[in-house]
Structure formats: structure tokens, C-alpha cells
Amino acid sequence: xxxxxxxxxxxxxxxxxxxxxxxxxxxxxxxxxxxxxxxxxxxxxxxxxxxxxxxxxxxxxxxxxxxxxxxxxxxxxxxxxxxxxxxxxxxxxxxxxxxxxxxxxxxxxxxxxxxxxxxxxxxxxxxxxxxxxxxxxxxxxxxxxxxxxxxxxxxxxxxxxxxxxxxxxxxxxxxxxxxxxxxxxxxxxxxxxxxxxxxxxxxxxxxxxxxxxxxxxxxxxxxxxxxxxxxxxxxxxxxxxxxxxxxxxxxxxxxxxxxxxxxxxxxxxxxxxxxxxxxxxxxxxxxxxxxxxxxxxxxxxxxxxxxxxxxxxxxxxxxxxxxxxxxxxxxxxxxxxxxxxxxxxxxxxxxxxxxxxxxxxxxxxxxxxxxxxxxxxxxxxxxxxxxxxxxxxxxxxxxxxxxxxxxxxxxxxxxxxxxxxxxxxxxxxxxxxxxxxxxxxxxxxxxxxxxxxxxxxxxxxxxxxxxxxxxxxxxxxxxxxxxxxxxxxxxxxxxxxxxxxxxxxxxxxxxxxxxxxxxxxxxxxxxxxxxxxxxxxxxxxx
Length: 542
Fold this sequence. Notes:
This protein folds into four domains: 6-325, ABC transporter involved in vitamin B12 uptake, BtuC; 333-362; 365-443, no CATH class; 469-542. The strands form two sheets. It has an eleven-stranded antiparallel beta sheet with strand order 3-4-5-6-7-8-9-10-11-12-13. A two-stranded antiparallel ribbon has the order 1-2. By secondary structure, it is α+β, with helices and mostly antiparallel strands. Helices cover 51% and strands 20% of the residues.
């Protein structure tokens, strides 16, 4: 039996998710968003189907893309046959059934051979079939059209109930219908005696065989059913993209679904759903930001295997006993998790900086010089300038040595370092380290400053994170930690509206004091500025 919170709320979570996804096209109306959501729906079916094999039955397959891709090829050929009047018209709505039948047929045939062995032997057999089918798609050009693949027009000419599947929103709801139908079928399948038999064979095959189960038939049936649902996913993939290629049957596709199931959490029904949605979104976003996105996915997979083998859902399940027995214990976990999150973010930043720096070494010199700047300056005078403040040496015959370093290897982050050295080139008067990260509407700036001269000693770490809802509305978070006195000075949360004529904002401020006996002050400020007439601030607005 499943443990934790998911044991009681899996079905309710699926129902809530269904109601939420029905209205998503009205929130995200762009064609890109609809394509991404449709892709998520297809891969959710594929990932849950794969989890039926790996998570529920304990069979590691490196070739499950076979049933996904070949079902897609069959669907494309069927659509082209209908459009050429070679075959009678079949509604697009029920074409995934064909993909499921193709997957079932292949699953029965290949599974009959594969399930004779288990463990490493089974995994290697699946790998061999995957490489074999990939080679066939490249050799038999008449049917598979080699590396170019096959295209099809999903608008077959006959509209049923006024639905042509030309608009992408209609394709989205088609995929959504089949997604939830398949997911619910696979969910209820786990609650049947057959689902319990799969778990028993997975956990202890010898014991299951001893009490009378035919463990090979159980694995064979699980393999065939998993291939069936993978075929449905492949058919929907072909309908969504109107194209199918050899990459859909390759080891890469099999590896992707393994990533999704494992990172989400194998053995838990909701795990592959979480993995498919999160990894699809992450892959889509990263591929548009950096060329090294494949490396990041590999790092994530290695870290999950090493430190969280039960995946994202497994981490949630681990907290189930605390949630049931004593929920107040969560309060004691806030600070450790906060420090862990900070350390994790620092690690992610360091790894990202290292990877992108190494990647930047491969660009040409002209581009490299534009992305890296370095400056160093000093001021020499014949006479001292005694009008300047005495706590600086800017007016001395030999001024401070100042320098600047700026690094911007990719388009979404920038690194700055400014410093000021005394004339001995050892003692520092001033240094500032700045890091700015921005991704679409989100930007975050970190700044560390340290001043140390005869009159001023100051050291702080400051962060400003901004999210722009649109060109007018922004949400801003600010904080600063005094490193010299070891305390946090303030937290600010600001909502700001700005256009060509008006700037208005509301700010929540929580300010701390060096004296521990003084309680932090909490304030709410308002600001309005009418350009070019000036503005009004409530007192102490930062």
C-alpha cells in the first residue's frame, strides 16, 4: 500500500488537476503555450505508462520509445491514407485507439521474448530492440522516410460535430480527454488485484511465485498494457505535431521518459505526472536560454539518483508521518530547510557559472571581448588637493588604485566586481561584488559591499528581486544584511505601478535593529508621483 499523503489524496488530486486544465487555454492563449501544454499531456500518458512497467512491476526498460514512435508512424500513415482517399475516413478523435492497438501488438510480441529474463538481461534486451528499431527506421526509407520523417495534415476533410482539429485549442482538448482517460484507467488498474500482483512480483518475485503467481505472465501482461498506453501517447504526439521522425523511437526518447518517471518518483502514481510536467517545462525553458541545457538535465538526474532516489514525490511522502502525527513539528524544519535552500541556490549558481564560463571559452575572440571587461586606474598629481575630505586619499599625490571587472557570458546574467586599493596595492579601501540574474519577467540582483577606511567601516549583503507582470505592474522584494554587525536590517515588499505619467506604489517594510532588546518595526508605506510635478511619500519610505 502506498504511504503518506498521496495514499489518501491521489484520486482527488487528479480530479482537481482535470478541472484546472480545462480552463488553462483561457489563461494561456498563445500558440506556444497551447503547444507546450499539449506536449505535457502527451508525455504525462507516456510517463505514467512507463511507470506501470518500472514503478509498479520493477522492469527497467531502455526501449519503451519503440511503442511510442511506431504508433506515431502508424497514425501518420493512416492520416495520409485518408487524405489520399486510399482509406475510409476515420475520425481523428478515435485514432489514438489505433496507436494503442499498435502498441499492444508490439508489446505482446516483444514482451513475450523480453519478459523471459529479468534485471540487467531484460534492460539489455530492451536496449537491443530500441537500437534495432531505430536502425530500421533509417534503412527502410519507403515506409519511414529516413531522417526526414513523415508529415501529415490532421485536417482530413470531414468535420465531426464541427471539429476539424485545425485550431490548436481543439487538439489540446483532444489530448486532454485522452490524457485523463488513460491516467484514470491506469490509476484504477493499480487498485485491481492485477495491480497488487504487479507490486508483489516487484517486491519479492520468489515469494509471489511460491504462493502460486505466474510471475512471467504478470510481467508480460504489465509489459503489454504499458506498451498499449505508450502507443496511445505516440499517436497523440503525431496528431499534435503532424510529423513523426526516427528520434521518437530512439534511445534518447526512451531516456527522456526514464528521466521523467525517476525524477518525479517511481512507484508512486503521481510521481511520473509531476516529473513529466516539470521536466517538459524545464527542458523547454532551458533550451531557449542556454545551449548547455542537456548538461543541466543530466546533472539533475544524477543528483536525484544520488540524494533523492524516490524522486520529488518521494520527498513529499517522507513528510507524511510528520504531517499525520504531529503537524507542529514542521515549524522546527523551517530554519533547516531555509539554510538548505540557500546552500542549494548557491550551489546551483556556482555550477551554472562554471558551466557557462567553460562554454563561453568556445566562442570567437571578438564575441569574448565584448562579454568581458576589465579596467584599472590610478591618479597621480603634482600637488595635493586639500579641499577634499581628509578620510579619502583622492586628493593625495598618489590616489587609490581602482579597478572594475565585468563578465557577461550569456544573455541572462551579469557579474561585476569593483575595488579600490591603497597605494601599497594590498590594503582594500572598498570592494563591491555584484551579480544580476534575469529571465524574461524575473530579475534578481545580489550585491556585497565592504568599505574599510579611516572613517567608515561598512559591510553588507543586499538583494533586490523584481517580477514584472507587464510593462506597468511590478512586484519587488528587497533585503539587506549588515555583515559588520551580523544582523538583517530590513525586508521590503513593494507593489509598483508605473506609466509615462504616473508612478504609484505600496510597500510593506519590516525593519530590524542592532539592539536585540528592540522589537522589529513593521510599516506600510504609500508612494505616488505625477510626472513631471514631483511626488508624495509617506515618511521613511525606502
